[in-house]
Design goal:
The chain has 249 residues and is α/β, with parallel strands linked by helices. The chain has 8 helices and 12 strands. It has a 6-stranded parallel β-sheet with strand order 3-2-1-4-5-12, sandwiched between helices. A 6-stranded parallel β-sheet has the order 6-11-10-7-8-9. The structure holds NADP nicotinamide-adenine-dinucleotide phosphate (NAP). The site of NADP nicotinamide-adenine-dinucleotide phosphate (NAP) has 25 residues, from strand 2, helix 2 and helix 3.
């Protein structure tokens, strides 16, 4: 190792990415730079350097890695962000810079859970029964795919409002995680929710809604994660710090 701190590119957009940046920014060996897609207009504070916006595909990401003297890349994007993860693997091949993945394990159903498994968003749209009152918790980007279901009512929660107006049968709820069990249960009771639609994001920050659905005996349409290319993976920040140290040894 030379005297200059090692530049680590963190592909972010998750709480785990933010936490990783905070930890490695305190370590004098490392100089983290977190990349955000720019989809959230007001992202929370992140330790270390932050850059915002797409790279222009795998080639653009490879150029960035070369220009910024990146030594290691950590894909800490959301489990459902498939394109950037594919680009990261390609850019790693193009540059010879190793790429690691930080990814929480998916949730698995427990006793009392009533999950309806959906392979993707479109399957989930069609799995909702007529006249349901849905709690939609899949984020802003793909929420509109559910708005075509005029035969249901919906509370759609996301961090920021969509660019276009939402139809009358959709109530927007703007909020940022974490979301705790008790508040989720109260919300679902108050809004007379009959079914929850969730991505299998994993982790504790948004698990409260799954616990609330279990407590209320409500079904959950659980959308499976997309496939991502295989990579050396850690499931939490501490394990990722150890994996980074091993990869750089
Ligand atoms: P995506 O479909 O995998 O990526 C679409 C494009 O957005 C990528 O090709 C890339 O553009 C750009 N991009 C994505 N993540 C980036 C990053 N961290 N830094 C720079 N550019 C990035 O991603 P997505 O599903 O739209 O998600 C966008 C971001 O939101 C991700 O960073 C993800 O971690 C976060 N997020 C996603 C979800 C979800 O459910 N999908 C949930 C929570 C948070 P270029 O090809 O131009 O480089």
């Amino acid at each position: 190792m030379g005297n200059n701190p090692i530049r680590i590119l963190i592909l972010g957009g998750t709480g785990d990415a933010r936490s990783l940046a905070e930890h490695i920014n305190c370590d004098a060996r490392y100089d983290p730079i977190t990349s955000l897609a720019g989809t959230t207009r007001t992202p929370g504070a992140i330790a270390g350097t932050v850059r915002i916006g797409g790279f222009g595909g795998a080639d653009g990401l490879a150029d960035f890695i070369r220009n910024e003297n990146i030594t290691l890349m950590v894909d800490a994007t959301h489990p459902f962000a498939a394109q950037i993860s594919s680009n990261a693997v390609q850019a790693g091949s193009l540059t010879g810079v190793p790429c690691l993945r930080l990814e929480r394990p998916p949730w698995t159903p427990l006793h009392g859970d009533n999950w309806i498994h959906a392979g993707d968003i479109n399957e989930a749209v069609h799995a909702i029964p007529a006249n349901a009152c849905v709690f939609l918790t899949i984020g802003r980007k793909e929420a509109a795919k559910f708005f075509v279901r005029g035969d249901i009512r919906m509370v759609a929660r996301m961090i920021e409002a969509p660019d276009r107006p939402v139809p009358d049968h959709v109530d927007l709820l703007l909020a940022r995680p974490p979301f705790a069990f008790v508040a989720e249960k109260v919300l679902m009771e108050d809004r007379r929710i009959t079914i929850l639609v969730a991505k299998n994001s994993g982790g504790a920050e948004t698990y409260g809604k799954i616990e609330a659905a279990r407590a209320l005996g409500l079904p959950v349409i659980m959308i499976a994660r997309p496939q991502k290319p295989a990579l050396a993976t850690a499931s939490n920040v501490d394990d990722m710090r150890a994996l980074i140290a091993r990869s750089l040894a």
